[in-house]
């Protein structure tokens, strides 16, 4: 594997920056920089159609916060579903079987491992809570072999047959605000690459995933239109100009709430309400 692509693929799979967190998060409302309680966030989440909670994939406290929000919404007896980046849309049957209790945890773990490279233990509490409470889970991600192909050769390299495997309406239009957002965060890494093709393909792969995950959300809402969906995804997918922007471009009229961990790109007042509604910060290790 070429060195440049190896670097790119690591970034593509993780879409995270190193971060460690512990219990006792402080939540800041980005619009006015005021500290708020989790209950205030939940009140806003109750009124939203779509709640996105970003994560650094290997940060346990980010997953703890995700589960905390899900528990609170469940306690309010709202029609609820959980959309997850960690599962691909073509594995929905296995995910449904696990939630229904017809597939054991031991049987499901190899399915999870085929979908996601991070350890099951990071996500187990969320999956088990959904199973115990029969909360539907939605595999949002597009098949990873297609993401890999786009990251290497661009969206145009996909065959008509491969595009049939994507959620209906999936596109890879780079003319969107998220591309500029990625340039600010990752452009420096790719600036010396000839003709910028690696960065272009990186953006196309990101756009493919955002578009595919948005379409998976839309497809579920057509079947269950009164359901509140909590989306758990890496920070670069959960910001407002990623999945929510793709939903809006596809004509979905949903009110959204975005909660993010405070990574360096959002620290020191750099977070904008155009991208994030609430920031959760955690004590240093």
Automatic annotation (TrEMBL):
Q: Which residues form the Haem-binding uptake Tiki superfamily ChaN domain?
A: 42-247
Q: Which domain of life is it from?
A: Bacteria
**UniProt entry keywords in alphabetical sequence:** Lipoprotein, Signal
Pfam families in the record: Cofac_haem_bdg (PF04187)
CDD domains the record matches: ChanN-like
- Signal sequence span is 1-23
List where the protein spans the membrane: none
List, alphabetically, the InterPro entries matched: Cofac_haem-bd_dom
Q: What is this protein called?
A: ChaN family lipoprotein
Source species: Geomonas subterranea
């Amino acid at each position: 594997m070429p060195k440049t692509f190896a670097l790119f693929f690591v970034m593509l799979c993780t879409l995270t920056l190193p971060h460690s967190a512990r219990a006792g998060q402080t939540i800041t409302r980005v619009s006015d920089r005021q500290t708020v309680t989790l209950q205030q966030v939940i009140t806003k989440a109750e009124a939203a159609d779509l709640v996105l909670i970003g994560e650094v994939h290997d940060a346990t406290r980010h997953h703890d916060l995700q589960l905390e929000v899900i528990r609170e919404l469940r306690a309010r007896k709202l029609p609820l579903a959980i959309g997850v980046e960690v599962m691909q849309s073509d594995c929905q049957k296995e995910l449904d079987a696990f939630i229904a209790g017809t597939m054991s945890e031991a049987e499901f773990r190899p399915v999870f491992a085929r979908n996601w490279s991070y350890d099951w233990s990071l996500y187990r509490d969320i999956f088990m809570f959904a199973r115990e409470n029969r909360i539907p889970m939605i595999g949002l991600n597009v098949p990873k072999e297609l993401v890999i192909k786009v990251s290497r050769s661009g969206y145009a390299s996909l065959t008509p047959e491969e595009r049939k495997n994507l959620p209906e309406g999936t596109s890879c239009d780079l003319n969107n605000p998220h591309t500029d957002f990625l340039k600010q965060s990752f452009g420096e890494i790719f600036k010396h690459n000839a003709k910028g093709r690696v960065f272009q393909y990186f953006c196309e792969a990101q756009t493919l995933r955002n578009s595919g995950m948005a379409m998976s959300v839309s497809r579920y809402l057509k079947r269950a239109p009164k359901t509140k969906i909590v989306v758990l995804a890496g920070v670069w997918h959960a910001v407002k100009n990623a999945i929510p922007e793709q939903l809006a471009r596809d004509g979905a009229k949903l009110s959204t709430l975005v909660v993010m961990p405070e990574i360096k790109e959002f620290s020191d007042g750099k977070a904008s309400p155009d991208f994030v509604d609430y920031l959760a910060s955690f004590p240093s290790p």
